[in-house]
Here is the input.
Amino acid sequence: MSSISPGRFDPAPSRWAYRFERLWLTPAFRLFIRTGLPLLLIFATIAIYLSDQARRDAVIGSYISVKDSIQQRPEFMVKLMSIEGASVEVSEDIREIIGLDFPISSFDLNLEDMRSRVMELDAVADATLRIRAGGILQFDIDQRQPAVVWRQGGRLEVLDPFGMRVGHLDFRTDRPDLPLIAGEGADRATVEGLRLLAAAGPVKGRIRGLVRVGQRRWDIVLDGGQKIMLPPVGAVAALERVVARAQMQGLLERNIQVIDMRNPDRPTIRIAPEVMEDIKKTRATITEGQSR
Here is the structure.
């Protein structure tokens, strides 16, 4: 057996060098040395630096200063508000609830929050917000269109064609152009009420209003105190029959107080009391004459 003399170099690695080489072959160890260790040193340096309160305040102050200098640049400033698709009254309501003081940085605007507040207005069906070039905050409003006036419990409300509230009226004369509906639940039957008005044809000019009865059917009130009582189902068809009779036979030109169509198979009419009294007197006179 040969032995290495004390004066010759031994090429074999030492025990620690051998262990390090084996450890270096581990992927996780190489990743830690190349990435983890530098990051750890960086974070440790930052932590040591920021351990002093004065240094922390200086860093925060610098950050706020840089942030403000960027956000307050002219290209990020909003100077005007533009509202499209809304009436003057609704536009004023929007400006009031938004309550912005211009100019203001676009970074300080929460468009989703502003849209939520605008959508709370009864007259607004939908709203889109965006910041246009030139520093303009643009509101595109889809406004509900007034269709009827609803009288309920002494209050007057303007409704759209689907019965959604548009606004409040102080006096009926404020919107004489809109038809009147009344009664509890009339708002939920606005669509049918508008169909009845469309089917009224030549009689429409005489309609004073539609009254919802028992939240299930309509009465049509005409000028002169006449009334058309419609059924819960097939109200439009029943009204069309009355209109046809009115055109051909002048039904509504007679001294009739009520036309009851609640049973379409057996429509009935109610004559005005004074006319009925005259008829009774006439019959009594005829009977008396025949008895002589």
